[in-house]
Amino acid sequence: MKSVPMLSGAFLQPAGQSLPDPLLAVRNERAAALADMPMPTRKTENWKYSSKYLKLTEDMAATLPATEKASSLDVPGYRIVLNNGAINRADSQYPDQGGITVQHFSDLDADDASSLAQKLGSTLDAEQTQFAQINSARFEDGLLIRLAANTVLDKPLFILHETAATQNGSAFPRIFVEAGTNSEMTLVEAYVSEGDSAALVDTVTEFQLADGANITSIRLTMEGETVQHIGATGVLQQRNSRFESHCVGFGGPLRRHDLQVRLEGEGAETKLNGVVVTQGKQHYDNHTSIDHVAAHCNSEETYRNIAADQSHAVFNGRIHIHQDAQKSNADMNNKNLLLSNGAEIDTKPELEIYADDVKCAHGATIGQLDETSVFYLVSRGIGRRQANVLLTMAFINELVEQIPVEAVRDTAQARLNDFFDQTFQEA
């Protein structure tokens, strides 16, 4: 019998020791717990479509060196720059209004560090997010963002993750957001890279929303062709809170994002939108999970995938209605577009209901561009390439236009235009 490959111990050896003792303890405990972690294989249910794309070598275990490189992204509003997972204080512009604090894990006092240590990982299912556990064993710093009650951040806060893949290695960014009662904020995370060495970005972002909090999370993944990106986002929502997510992802050698939301207070609402495009031999895997724990909660989820050439996209969406979650309203929709015969898309919507007074629906479709529609546009004098672009953009434009930050919409549109230029050639 073929043995199951194990995670190399090199990936459990953190280099930095500047964290407060409670956070060092979390890191050491997690590393010890992962000592015999089996690597995902095609028999691992939540990795069966992605395990073959995961390529981790010993030389990638080393932490990429911190740099002080200025950000390559020009964004409006507040910004915090992370170079290779390390916070670049000099190039960051922290929020300056009252009611919000942004602290580095390394700067926390004993009480705050102890409180944070008890919360780290509490928003995520450990069995389903194996690489989030590796992040817990390897993070060397992080951001703790706290919104006081009734605080409304006046501008979006951008977290710019920039990876310099000038040598093989890994980065482990960590963010924890506490949103107080009736607070409101838009957080944008953008991931980019440069260089052509093999790198792993293993990132975790967690949100805890108090009663009435309103958080908009925007995630833009745009790293290069040598960077494997594995991310996890966990959300806990209390009474009457609202969480809105917009994820736009461009494929790579391996892209994976786990998004897990728990509606724990009555009246909580969540909205998840996602757009993914892949080309060449790229791969992108989205796994989402929404747990309706309390009654009278609403969730709405819409994901669209486009795959060209020999690329591969995956969507696995799960909605779990718990026994006490009466009067739940949940809707999940996944539509997928194949632009070539060699592309592949796998979709698996799941709906698990244990309450009897609910309104739930889910569905998925996979198809190709409608040749009748293409012919109609061509017959009206539009070139075939432009007809393909128009129909493909129409497939995802509804979701792109819903992104509430113009700078992100413009960036996403520019990258989509590049995708169209490479995918569709003039006939």
From TrEMBL:
Segments forming domain SUF system FeS cluster assembly SufBD core: 166-395
Gene Ontology biological-process entries: iron-sulfur cluster assembly
InterPro entries given in the database record: Fe-S_cluster_assembly_SufBD (IPR055346), SUF_FeS_clus_asmbl_SufBD_core (IPR000825), SUF_FeS_clus_asmbl_SufBD_sf (IPR037284), SUF_FeS_clus_asmbl_SufD (IPR011542)
NCBIfam families noted in UniProt: sufD (TIGR01981)
Name of the featured protein: Fe-S cluster assembly protein SufD
Organism ancestry: Bacteria, Pseudomonadati, Pseudomonadota, Gammaproteobacteria, Pseudomonadales
